[in-house]
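We give this protein:

***
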Amino acid sequence: MPVFQLSKKNVFPPPELAEYDGLLAIGGDLTVKRLLNAYAMGIFPWYSEGSPILWWSPDPRMILLPDELIVSRSLRQTIRKGIFHVTFDTDFEEVIKSCASVSRKDANGTWITDEMREAYVKLHESGYAHSIESRIDGNIVGGLYGVSLGGAFFGESMFSRVSNASKVAFVSLVNMVKAWDFLFVDCQVTTEYLMSFGARHVSRKEFMELIDKALLMPAHKGRWT
């Protein structure tokens, strides 16, 4: 399949035309409208500094159904001890900045470029992107961020400066969206970390069917508390 070059128009090719590795298109921009259109079609941006914007739609897709969340015994004990105080949407910019600065074993540098940070801050200000923070003594020591549309949460990145900080934030997120009857949390690509929580693969066709249902559900737009 060819990789499509995007124009200034806010349109994407059908996700099923993506390459074997999930790469669908190149170019375009990171405006709020285009990002929302992308997520509604099961597409997300992922690229490195110095690269043009790359748009992806992997098949299969890794997701977590809230009812299938697995919390290990040791993590349950950590949560019960109250080591971390979890907050929502109290410092989105700090969370995405921290996600961008964390070193990763499987990558050089970061895919969260300045352009990406600015774009997702605008998404947050528009009420669609959210952060979950794990704090100790008021200081953020871990967390994650993502995008919410209807009954779907599209996870983007997480970080941890203290053991279990991002795990506690993730469990808090899943419990929150489960209470709101969200259909799924999108994990995008396969990691053993997320599989340990019960995340699993679905086909692109199944994923798109879930998105269609999720978009019909009430939106939880604005600051989460």
